[in-house]
């Protein structure tokens, strides 16, 4: 106690000016106004395009290395008119479709079983955890030896690259099923199979769709990698073939188409998540 | 015909040795009674309820329902948890029907029975609502309707109103008494809320803590069960007796922690 202190005002060591200042742009974990949000999102795509256009218009880089947006658009139209681009796109999409569907078909039930039963988890998690850290492209030589150079190795590559991740991610979603919900089901007369199929599965479905969305991105990368190595058609093959003949404009067309398709798939899964899981608070 | 809890004993083996949670618990629940087991934290009351539910197995002793030993969970005992346990992707009607669906009861029959119990809890007009659209009290009423739809022998309640605000809690108390009188359901509820126990039960088991034991059995005789009773001395006497019981075991627990 300070005897000379005759003030009963609360003593505080906090300095003035520590009050949090209001802001719009720098709000942490809060939404920003819709118009600002849209402008920033448009800028995110428009600014790089503008930069690209300026750099090529001023001829800052040799057009051989960096074709202008106009050249790339013209090449895009040419590849569409000959039907080559459609053929490549369909080939790549087909491989991803088959490989990813097969991986999802097996990984989702196995993952849910791993999440639900400690026994299955103990049996599979160490092996899956190990496999997950082996990069899928490292399997390409083996896949070519085992399966040749047709469609089979490419689909197998996507399967390997997606299956283990997706199973482990599906497993993790089961952690978020409240134990009370499972016990309620037992108390209502549910057996274990009913609990698994009618309570756990619907509860983890949003999480599984989200896991699939993330792993589809991996599948889409792997198909391009597979086609870079050996293929007769496909977007990856288009790029590697164009590279051999220094057709940078075709490389750009390939890259942009790959990006746009990947992002469309992502948006589709986000839509699926919103529609099928309206009950869930897990909104994106 | 009744539920018997005979010499129930439960311990857990932890890193710090054996932890005895329940010791020599003996209770009987007659059909049609409303019983509360009241205890502070550490009295093992939730563990006790889990043994009756069959969600956990006793280390010693047993629970018998109509003479038959409990070996696992089942719909003859309706359970209402403290935390909301409605299935979030099902609407209120589907939630209320779900137990009957699991038990393989035909669609028409289960629709009819669930609707009846939704009416009993006063939520018929919310049949199409999703759980996230309901208030806390309404969620618990759906959980009660869902449990009742299986027409259980006993309703087990694990601090079902613990998460509700004071006013909703009071409404739920009156609702529970009304429900109990109308349906003749047997209720076994655990709580730490002494007033809740006195207001609702016709019999109370006061639990001591560490290890959980039955400290005293109190038969509650109140002249009426409306909120006026809470201001009368007869209510206060019951409440104070229970509070003293809980206080003294609270001190014991504190001493045990300090030791």
UniProtKB/TrEMBL annotation, chain A:
Annotated InterPro entries: MetI-like, MetI-like_sf
Any single GO CC term annotated in Swiss-Prot or TrEMBL for this entry: plasma membrane
Subcellular location field: Cell inner membrane; Cell membrane
Topology in the lipid bilayer: Multi-pass membrane protein
Keyword hit for Metal-binding: no
Segments forming domain ABC transmembrane type-1: 89-269
SUPFAM superfamilies documented for this protein: MetI-like
GO biological process terms held by the UniProt record: alkanesulfonate transmembrane transport; monoatomic ion transport
One Pfam family recorded for the sequence: BPD_transp_1
Family: Belongs to the binding-protein-dependent transport system permease family.
The name this protein goes by in its record: ABC transporter permease
Organism field: Oscillatoriales cyanobacterium SpSt-418
Organism lineage string: Bacteria, Bacillati, Cyanobacteriota, Cyanophyceae, Oscillatoriophycideae
UniProtKB/TrEMBL annotation, chain B:
Localization: Cell inner membrane
Molecular functions (GO terms): ATP binding; ATP hydrolysis activity
UniProt entry tagged with the keyword Nucleotide-binding: yes
Gene3D superfamilies: P-loop containing nucleotide triphosphate hydrolases
Record keywords: ATP-binding, Nucleotide-binding, Transport
One GO CC term on file: plasma membrane
Membrane-protein topology: Peripheral membrane protein
Major site of localization recorded for this protein: membrane
UniProt keyword Iron, yes or no: no
Family that this chain belongs to: Belongs to the ABC transporter superfamily. Nitrate/nitrite/cyanate uptake transporter (NitT) (TC 3.A.1.16) family.
Name of this chain's protein: ABC transporter ATP-binding protein
Native source species: Oscillatoriales cyanobacterium SpSt-418
The organism's taxonomic lineage, starting at the top: Bacteria, Bacillati, Cyanobacteriota, Cyanophyceae, Oscillatoriophycideae
